[in-house]
Amino acid sequence: MSELSRGPGRVLVAVYAIFTLAAGARSGYQLATEFDRAPVAYLLSALAAVIYLLATAALWTSRRGIALAAIGIELAGVLGVGLYSVLDGEAFPEPTVWSDFGAGYGYVPLVLPVLGLLWLRRSSREPVSPER
Amino acid sequence: MVGWLAGTLIALSLVGAVWFLVLAARDKPIQAVHLLSMAVLEAGLLIQVIVAAVLLAGGHEAQEQGTFIGYLAGSLVVLPVGAFLAVGERSKWGSVAAGVACLTVPVVILRMQDLWSGTGV
To answer: Which residues cross the membrane (chain B) (predicted)?
Structure first.
């Protein structure tokens, strides 16, 4: 079985690491200073940061099961929060990384888990990546 | 923040991103010269951080000061992470990873500029 961080997986690790940083820095500050203002949104941001961190680490260390779980939750999160924020904007007075399907981040949060799942499937089918 | 410095860094990082992605399209891994250019860009970002820190210490108030400082610190982390990932992957995919890191730099700088001048959301 090929390593999840080789080949195209390397690009995924890079993007996941960047999103871990973006979501983590943002939510850490929000939770520390203004938690009372929008606890749901800030907790979701923190959850997103943890999921991104988990996905980054799982891809890097080739832990397929954890990667699948993290990326699955991520996809469910961006779809769920995205839909909810579009239908009921009042529920999210402060934007999270997943609000409006990640529009604030160029929809990368929506595309990323799809690419992640495709990569998990492809890398399990092809033991040796042909791109290398 | 200094407008022309931020503008220069944005332009340089975009040039770097195009360079690395063209490299990837030609199926090549990054070489020493690419790492060197990333180091130069990183030095520029470090200068920007120092300038911003001095201006903040001098009394400038950015919108959401804490978030701004977070972006400021984050702007220094992106390229080293990209370079590290690219060095470990000697294929075109490493070049793509480096290109993605370079593409992130303008985004971070633009967000910082919004917060700095208080025009952001």
So the answer is: 34-56, 68-87, 93-110
Average pLDDT of the residues of chain B: 93
Residue pair A77/A48 in contact (Cβ under 8 Å)? The answer is yes
- Whether residue B85 and residue A17 make contact (CB cut-off 8 A), yes or no, is yes
- What is the rounded distance in angstroms from the CA atom of residue A66 to the CA atom of residue A79? 20
Q: How many domains does chain B have?
A: 1
Instruction: Give A47-74 pLDDT, tens digit per residue.
Output: 999 999 999 999 999 999 999 999 999 9
Place of tokens 């799809």: A114
> pLDDT-derived band of residue B120, with 50, 70 and 90 as boundaries?
very low
Assigned token pair, B13: 């990082």
Please state, for a pLDDT cut of 70, what percent of chain A lies above it. Answer: 89
Asked if A10 lies within 8 A of B97 by C-beta distance, the reply is yes
Alpha helix stretches (DSSP H) within chain B: 3-25, 32-57, 65-87, 92-117
Q: What is the rounded distance in angstroms from the CA atom of residue B19 to the CA atom of residue B36?
A: 13
Question: Which tokens hold the place of A130?
Answer: 């042909």
Q: B13 at the A interface (CB within 8 A)?
A: no
**Residue from the list B73, B93, B104 with its beta carbon closest to the beta carbon of A11:** B93
Domain containing B82 — which CATH number? 1.20.120
Domain containing B92 equals 3-117
Note the residue count of chain B.
121
Whether pLDDT at A2 is above 80: no
Q: Which ipTM score applies to this complex?
A: 0.91
Tokens encoding A96: 């999270």
What is the pTM assigned to this prediction? 0.90
How much is the average pLDDT of B14-42? Answer: 97
Question: What residues in B contact A13, CB-CB < 8 Å?
Answer: 85, 97
